[in-house]
Amino acid sequence: MIILVLNCGSSSIKYQLIDMKSANDPVLMAKGLVERIGLPDAIFTHKPEGREKYEAVFPIPDHTVGINKLLELLVDERYGVLKSLDQLDAVGNRVAHGGEYFPDSAVVNDDVIAKIESCFELAPLHNPANMKGIMAVRTLLPNVPQVCNFDTSFHATIPAKNFLYALPYRYYEQDRVRKYGFHGTSHRYVAQKACAELGMDYAKSKIITCHIGNGASITAILNGRSFDTSMGFTPVDGLVMGTRCGEVDPGAILYIMDKEGLGTADARNMINKESGILGVSGISFDMRDIEAGVKAGNERAIVGFDMYNERIKKYVGGYAAKMGGVDLIVFTGGVGENGPETRAAVCSDMEFMGVVFDRAANNGVRGKDKVLSAPDSRVKVMVCTTNEELVIAQDTFRLLS
């Protein structure tokens, strides 16, 4: 089954074309990225396997035009990997928010579209953009079935004691205010992948997965089910991130709003785009720049770096306590996969809970799977590369086979 996987942002399209020979036998055929949609100098990069790379800058006014161009490239004589679009069997879409409607991925129909639209108010920056891709495919390929994979689905198993906020209950009943969690596709994938590589039983293990990057979250997985996660009603909660503040006293936000005369739009911008390690360091939201600042002795960079790592450690310890222990800790994401300094900082002084970290094994590890715990460590520690597009393709294959 040849599947086109789409991840549509407000001004971008990330895609992969995957031939699913079977559920566990994927073959990548092409991948690409469309950036700056809506501007006259949009950037289109298309990388077919075994063929010449395509790069161009030209106007792409909307997602339909962008997807139409990528479909043309898939069958192009020079850059294509398909003889005809008739070979395309399905499209899998990433959708950020499924509310409480979708505990699993879903085949697209009118009812699914209506429910995704009803979640626009819960994810105003993400769901409308995701929907643009779905509707563009409906227009361009009306007979090709589509599947949606939701960032929130994996967290549908979190119990009420962990997803409710201590607010008047009516806000949950009437306005759907609760913890939803995100990055679920990645957390599920790396947990299962690590267990398979280590010979552990995923359905009978206590696992903590750390998806660490510019956006970051940690999930406690108890016997194969999401038990708790650090992101909440929105992706701004939990860890210190690149530009997001993470957990903070809401009274402090209200105080700043009153003191500075900020409206809700200004406050939303502040906690999402001006905070995190960017706000603390004053240097950058990129951890590579922060690490350079630490080496240069920049005091605010050092504080930002320490805050970033200490918050991760706090959640790891807290989730181990909530599950009554932990068998496996997994690092993934941009920083999790490529930040040995962060991994070492998080796992230092954790021997009391059974973590014996192998610093030599950790040094220099970037972008590959590797066990980072010592042979005598009761708790296994591993870095795993994530592949959310593969999970979307696997779910599409499973639901349409």
Brief summary of the model shown:
The protein is α/β, with parallel strands linked by helices and 401 residues long. It has 15 helices and 14 strands.
Describe the 3D structure.
It is a single chain. With about 400 residues, the chain is of the alpha/beta class. Helices cover about 40% and strands about 20% of the residues. The protein has helices at about 65-75, 110-120, 125-140, 160-165, 170-175, 185-200, 250-260, 265-275, 275-280, 285-295, 300-325, 335-340, 340-345, 360, 390-400; strands spanning about 1-10, 15-20, 25-35, 40-50, 55-60, 90-95, 105, 145-150, 205-210, 215-220, 225-230, 330, 370, 380-385. A hairpin with a 5-residue loop joins β4 and β5 (about 55-60). The longest helix is centred in the last third of the chain and has 25 residues, at about 300-325. The model has no long low-confidence stretch (mean pLDDT about 95).
Please give the radius of gyration in angstroms. 22 Å
Mean pLDDT: 96
Instruction: Count every helix, treating DSSP H or I runs of 4 or more residues as helices.
Output: 15
Q: Report the structural category.
A: alpha/beta
Percent range of helical residues = 25-40%
What is the general shape? globular
- Main beta sheet: strand number and arrangement? 8 strands, mixed
Strand segment count: 14
Order of helices and strands: EEEEEHEEHHEHHHEEEHHHHHEHHHEEH
Distance between the termini: 8 Å
- Side by side, the strands of the main sheet go 5-4-3-2-1-6-8-7
Give the DSSP E fraction (strand runs of 2 or more residues): 15-25%
Question: Which blocks of ≥5 consecutive residues have pLDDT under 50?
Answer: none
